[in-house]
Amino acid sequence: MRKVFKYRLYPNTTAEKKLYFTLNRCRELYNAALSERKDSYQLHERKQLQINSETGQVVAATMTAKQRVKAVGYYGQKRALVEIKKLREEYQGIASHVLQDVILRVERTFQRFFDGAGFPRFKGPNRYDSFTYPDGAGWKLDVEEQGNSFKGTLHLTRIGDIKVRLHRKIEGKIKTVAIKREVDHWFVVFSCEVEEPAQIPLSYEDVGIDLGVTHLATLSNGEMIEHPRYYRRAKKTLEKRQQALSRKKKGSHRRERAKKLFGKAHRKIANQRRDFHHKQSRKLINRYQVIVFEDLHIGNLTRRPKPKQDEETGQYLSNGAAAKGSLNKSILDAGWGMFVGMCSSKAAGAGRTLLTVDPTFTSQVCSGCGQVRKKDLSERWHTCDCGTELDRDVNAAINILARGQQHLGGKHPTSATA
Ligand SMILES: [Zn+2]
């Protein structure tokens, strides 16, 4: 299995100059190779046109894609690199395999073209942003472990040593190394061969999960996953910036700037949420064998009135709640869907079962006796004549789990041993 690790590079001025130099030479080579093949393609294509002798019109070009490029092709161009290096000294300063990879890129765009994609295009300076070491030659990575963090140095032949910020540990065997420019930042992208994740041991615990506004998730065993701590502050920033944005005149520079700031806050909250959801979903998958969620597509209908509640305190908001509602909805809804999606893909990789059930009345039905106990949204506690006393969301989560288990029909190990 391939896994990709991307890290920020911190080249010094000399190394950065060489990075730009290499990138520009690669782009130049790419465009030249493309131009040669384009000419060859057009020349050969023209020769093969069938002309209707009576009308003089072109009937068809009959050559197959492979024949068309016979004159100039991938291997021919790869061989020509030796000549190019002789004629253009500056190319001698670039690792051979990097240049070969450029030729391969041209070949790939032609293959895609033959498969129906558009005709390959020349690349302007902003359109060509990476070069690749396709194997183990021309580079070396040194990693130094310092407590919990890693210090890395990437040695590139004829370019120099570059500091790498290894924010997470690299795994597996490095197969290819790409150097990538993003605006004025440089990155290294390692594509690594890693072993398939080992199956985690079978669990005998199942769980039902109620997703909510007060808590991110309430589990059927009474545990809760709270919204992350940073969330409240990030959301405040987001709201403030949205208000600022709405006050700016349409089409103005100030509005553009406010828009950028709002976008930035949005991205930050999205990134934080993604990290948090990854961690939480991993925990759930490690612990439970069967995980039952409510089906959000159905759930949203019953949830509609909820945004009128303050999502932190569960209290009702008086005025302006509707306007705030759409923002809250966009923050929270996206979060739930993504969270379930992450759990789902991790479950698939780990041999766990995840299913979603119709959530209708899950908060109204008593999980102890099955009777309907109507309550409005402000009632946070479930009390029933049968003696069941539960948090409203825990009651719902138990019902969700029960629906899931009913659906599985006792065919899985947990319910057989329960
Ligand atoms: Zn009851």
Write a concise synopsis of the structure shown.
This protein is of the alpha+beta class and 418 residues long. The protein has helices spanning 13-47, 65-68, 74-87, 96-114, 230-247, 253-287, 296-303, 321-350, 392-408, 413-417; strands at 2-10, 49-51, 58-61, 130-133, 139-146, 149-156, 160-166, 173-182, 185-193, 206-211, 217-219, 224-225, 290-294, 353-357, 381-383, 389-391.
Overview of this protein structure:
This protein has 418 residues and is an alpha+beta fold. 44% of the residues lie in helices and 21% in strands. The protein contains 10 helices and 16 strands. The strands form 4 sheets. The chain has a 7-stranded antiparallel β-sheet. A hairpin with a 5-residue loop joins β15 and β16. α6 packs across α8. The two termini are 37 Å apart. The C terminus is likely disordered. The protein binds zinc ion (ZN). Zinc ion (ZN) binds next to loops.
So how many helices? 10
Give helix and strand order, one letter per element, not per position. EHEEHHHEEEEEEEEEHHEHHEEEHH
Please summarize the sheet with the most strands: 7 strands, antiparallel
Number of distinct beta strands: 16
**Dominant shape:** elongated
Could you give the order of strands across the largest sheet? 4-8-9-1-7-6-5
Structural class: alpha+beta
What is the straight-line distance between the termini? 37 Å
Provide the list of bound ligands, each named once: zinc ion
Helicity range: 40-55%
**Strand residues, percent:** 15-25%
Weakly predicted, low-confidence segments: 300-324, 413-418
